[in-house]
Design brief:
With 68 residues, the chain is mainly beta. It has a domain at 4-46. It has 1 helix and 2 strands; from the N terminus they run E-E-H. A two-stranded antiparallel sheet has the order 1-2. The longest helix has 9 residues, at 38-46.
């Protein structure tokens, strides 16, 4: 299956939440995807909920489950 690289995906209007707390809304959110298949991009565009998770080792000091 072929991959698409370095593509910007427009996600449209979204509610901004942290955990279960709604913090606000955004009129338009777009993200740059490093690599994905066409099928994965379609799933991303149509997803009801998308989670952004800070990866450990990416300046994520103090993240969930990380000991300080």
């Amino acid at each position: 299956m072929s991959k698409v690289t370095n593509i910007v995906v427009d996600l449209g209007s979204r509610m901004i939440m942290v955990g279960s707390e709604a913090l606000g809304t955004s009129d338009n959110i777009s993200i740059q995807v490093a690599e994905a298949t066409e099928e994965e991009l379609e799933k991303l565009k149509s997803a009801y909920e998308i989670r952004l998770v800070k990866m450990l080792g990416e300046g994520g000091a103090g993240g969930p489950g990380e000991r300080t």
